[in-house]
Design a protein that fits this description.
Elements (H helix, E strand, L loop, with lengths): L16 H25 L3 E8 L5 H8 L8 E5 L5 H4 L5 H4 L8 E5 L8 H4 L5 H22 L1 E9 L2 H13 L9 H6 L3 H13 L5 E5 L3 H17 L12
Helix pairs in contact: 1-10, 2-10
């Protein structure tokens, strides 16, 4: 069983920053090449889920890892507080509409897991509903894989409480980051232990496995994600379509 509170948020000792950054560049370039083939072939799709505490670097990961991809079939959707219309439907209604079409990469900045994280931490839903939602999430992800040839990659961006404080403070101190500041982020820190427990449960209850990404050093975050994405895309039978035989 995974317990996030016992997992490191920094790279393994002895990791060479220069070597890792060089490898990351190679992976990102290859992701861009494979993305173009996937766009042309329109047989596979890729769903990337970034889930993590405030300040864990979800925006930066999307920007850095996919920087060499064409924008024509790459998009990011940030899940925020549901609208009134979304609240009037089941919790996956808004999620299903954002799933990638064949040939596309779709990045979820936060995701369907918000509905078993923040709502559970604050006691807005009971444990019976949590379990039913977990089952629904697993079924949704399995359906995407089976029925639409979608590879689902889930990344838990694992940040330390100390590093999160630093990141949130930068949103106050640095003018170019102040647009990200939200007083509510500091309030949520008070529930840190509860979030770690609920994140651990979400990971352990998932049918499709998660990749836990240490993010205190952002260069290592980018490496872990880029490597996983590149390997997943290499495993697809990607090929440019051929002209029909005459």
């Amino acid at each position: 069983m995974i317990d996030l509170s016992k997992i490191a948020t920094k790279p393994p000792k002895g990791t060479d920053k220069g070597d890792v950054k060089a490898l990351t560049e190679q992976y990102c370039k290859r992701i861009g090449e494979l993305n173009e083939i996937m766009r042309a072939q329109r047989k596979h799709s890729l769903l990337i889920i970034f889930q993590g505490m405030d300040g864990s670097g979800k925006d930066g990961a999307a920007k850095n890892v996919f920087k060499d991809c064409t924008p024509f079939n790459l998009s990011v959707y940030a899940f925020k507080k549901p609208t009134e219309i979304e609240f009037a439907h089941d919790f996956l209604w808004r999620v299903h509409q954002q799933a990638p079409a064949k040939g596309d990469i779709r990045i979820f900045n936060r995701s369907q897991y918000e509905d078993i994280l923040i709502q559970r931490v604050h006691g807005w839903i009971d444990e019976e509903r949590v379990k039913k939602r977990v089952a629904a999430i697993n079924a949704f992800e399995e359906l995407a894989q089976f029925d639409n040839n979608t590879t689902v990659l889930k990344f838990c961006l694992h940040i330390s409480k100390e590093e999160q404080e630093k990141q949130l403070q930068e949103r106050i101190d640095e003018p170019e980051k102040r647009w990200k500041h939200n007083d509510g982020d500091w309030k949520e820190r008070e529930f840190w232990d509860d979030y770690m427990r609920c994140y651990s449960d979400a990971i352990n209850w998932s049918t499709i496995p998660w990749t836990i990404v240490p993010v205190d050093d952002r260069w290592y975050r980018d490496y872990v994600i880029a490597k996983k994405v590149c390997e997943a895309m290499e495993a697809m039978d990607l090929a440019y379509p051929q002209l029909p035989k005459k």
